[in-house]
Amino acid sequence: MELKGIHHVSAITANAAGNLHFYTDIMGMRLVKKTVNQDAPSMYHLFYADEAGNPGTELTFFEIPHAGATRPGTNSISLTSLRVASDEALYFWKERFKKYGVDQEEITERVGRKTIRFTDAEGQRLMLVSDEKNAGVEGGTPRFHKEVPKEFGIIGLGPVTLTVANGELTRKLIEEVLKFSPAATYPSEVDGQREVVVYSTGEGGTGAELILEERTDLATERLGRGSVHHVALRAADQKELSNWIERLTEMKVPHSGFIDRFYFRSVYIKDPNGLTIELATDGPGFDADEPFETMGESLALPPFLEPRREEIERRLKPLGGGN
User: Fold this and answer.
1) Is residue 1 part of a domain?
2) SS (H, E, C) the chain
3) 321 within domain boundaries
4) Count of other CB atoms within 10 angstroms of residue 186
5) Are strands 76-84 and 30-37 parallel, antiparallel or unpaired?
6) What is the pTM of this model?
7) Number of domains composing the chain
8) Most distant CA pair in the chain, distance
9) pLDDT in tens, 133-152
10) What is the reported pLDDT for 55?
11) Residue 156: which domain range?
């Protein structure tokens, strides 16, 4: 029983239309599912991914129109990485970000890989990471985009950084419960005496890493537009997910129990520092209710919400675009 890597990251936007423009038109990702938050169906839930919507490539957003600005801080999922195939791709993106006025930093090597940190218009903290030296989990297939050559396209999610006030508590969850293993360390950019730990699972590599950073100099992050709600990790199938739920129960880790999200099955854990971590199955997938060729073009609703379609559509503002 071993988690396969990062499944998806779910963040918050206050502007679904602007969010759709950034991630499809500028970042070149595919909108593979236009749906709603299943727990609050008056808000959009948008899924961006590679061409096929493969697990491990999904960056998703809940739209909360009146969300305030994020106050960055500790006990947060503080950085989301997106993978590209090569170092050369980073130079393409550097010029593209400049063209579109995207806030970015210089290309920097981190843990032996070239990277660029950048933000979207709402301050979402992101980083491109090169897969040129990756020997772990394979990336996906970039969506065809007229301005982004396929060899430079986004191929999936990379390492996800957790910034917490009490590193020992989250370390126990990552190592002892979720069975990730330490793979590397590097000095904190804020306090060079403190080590940041890179954890790995499954085949390892850029698609299977969590990074744990302890910070005692910050207040707790206030979630808002531009922040991350949760990170999900990959369980192979429903049988394995059931085994994980049994393990969580046996180890007295508070959890949600089994939840059917239709496109995948899930269980949610609340980390001792307050982070939300989901375990999610690789399937059934986003083509469960619409053809592969037209995924993301229409509002998709899971079966239990279908009877409320008219009411739900009435409350949502049309988005247009996306593919």
Assistant:
1) no
2) CCCCCEEEEEEEECCHHHHHHHHHHHCCCEEEEEEEECCEEEEEEEEEECCCCCCCCEEEEEECCCCCECECCECEEEEEEEEECCHHHHHHHHHHHHHHCCCECCCEEECCEEEEEEECCCCCEEEEEECCCCCCCCCCCCCCECCECHHHCCCEEEEEEEEECCHHHHHHHHHHHCCCEEEEEEECCCCCCCEEEEEECCCCCHHHEEEEEECCCCCECECCECCEEEEEEEECCHHHHHHHHHHHHHCCCCECCCEECCCEEEEEEECCCCCEEEEEEEEECHHHCCCHHHCCCCECCCCCCHHHHHHHHHHCCCCCCCC
3) no
4) 15
5) unpaired
6) 0.97
7) 1
8) 57
9) 999 999 999 999 999 999 99
10) 98
11) 6-315
Tokens of 90: 């980073």
Q: What integer pLDDT is reported at residue 322 of this predicted model? A: 53
| 323 is a domain residue | no
Q: Do 207 and 56 touch, CB atoms closer than 8 A?
A: yes
In this structure, what CATH number is given to the domain that contains residue 293?
3.10.180.10
